């Protein structure tokens, strides 16, 4: 059976060019700052995001944690969107390890508006933790891959700065956002004091994320990366794939977005499933299961048809397009989804 894997863009495999670059990579001990390929990736990423310097880390989760550790002190308050990855999916690390208290703010489709930041930041008072940092996510994963453009990002970033907060952007899929809104990624993070993105998702590299910011921020972040065990030695072997990813994989994300749209439109005609098409702007499709089967049960049935998806709630299934999903795969997946939907609306 052909497997169509729509669980995540993290399942993407490295390209031949990446594998060759990995085999040839010049390497050194990166904990000693001597890996030329890691330096090249960090420099290229900094240039593309308009930041001074970069730091290569093993994962997006670690990039967010190291950013929070670098921006804050224990007991500080961190404003974060209530469904943000940093809050929802990172094992409580910003509390458990960084020792901060998150202040979850329910966004509008993942966007925290400037007025919400104003409302959340309390005046200094001996009873309150010190509000120190605002974390944003672009694209917003749980909201359905929603991209935020320069105006939205600037408005909330500026407000945070006015209120004395630093700004960190979880840009795991920042290049999806940039491609969707049609601007260079740097324009989305002008007011970000730090931003991280992953080379391991739609960009198809096997491992890693890059955290970016001012030179002194990155210098301090390097110590926290070491503290949490993220100092890597001959990491150029994996950084080499990241360089190829940045050079060759960004523009093609538009294909993933077109395929997500095709998938979403097909599903929107498949009762008892529904999709809010206005939300489908990048490579993520959130499907509502309005039926007597729960999302996990529907996911299990689909798996028997060779279509892998991820339930993200009792009645929500997430489907993600990526480099290994063609328009033909989308059509095959749609047939399987229709068969499954029809089977379970019929009486047993
Ligand atoms: C928005 C967002 N941030 C951070 C991460 C964490 O990345 P990693 O899986 O590399 O730790 C993910 C992973 O899916 C994500 O979607």
TrEMBL record:
<dbReference type="GO" id="GO:0005829">
    <property type="term" value="C:cytosol"/>
</dbReference>
<dbReference type="GO" id="GO:0006545">
    <property type="term" value="P:glycine biosynthetic process"/>
</dbReference>
<comment type="similarity">
    <text>Belongs to the threonine aldolase family.</text>
</comment>
<keyword id="KW-0456">Lyase</keyword>
<dbReference type="Pfam" id="PF01212">
    <property type="entry name" value="Beta_elim_lyase"/>
</dbReference>
<dbReference type="InterPro" id="IPR001597">
    <property type="entry name" value="ArAA_b-elim_lyase/Thr_aldolase"/>
</dbReference>
<dbReference type="InterPro" id="IPR015424">
    <property type="entry name" value="PyrdxlP-dep_Trfase"/>
</dbReference>
<dbReference type="GO" id="GO:0006567">
    <property type="term" value="P:L-threonine catabolic process"/>
</dbReference>
<keyword id="KW-0663">Pyridoxal phosphate</keyword>
<dbReference type="GO" id="GO:0008732">
    <property type="term" value="F:L-allo-threonine aldolase activity"/>
</dbReference>
<dbReference type="InterPro" id="IPR015421">
    <property type="entry name" value="PyrdxlP-dep_Trfase_major"/>
</dbReference>
<dbReference type="InterPro" id="IPR023603">
    <property type="entry name" value="Low_specificity_L-TA-like"/>
</dbReference>
<feature type="modified residue" description="N6-(pyridoxal phosphate)lysine">
    <location>
        <position position="201"/>
    </location>
</feature>
<protein>
    <submittedName>
        <fullName>Low-specificity L-threonine aldolase</fullName>
        <ecNumber>4.1.2.48</ecNumber>
    </submittedName>
</protein>
<feature type="domain" description="Aromatic amino acid beta-eliminating lyase/threonine aldolase">
    <location>
        <begin position="5"/>
        <end position="288"/>
    </location>
</feature>
<dbReference type="InterPro" id="IPR015422">
    <property type="entry name" value="PyrdxlP-dep_Trfase_small"/>
</dbReference>
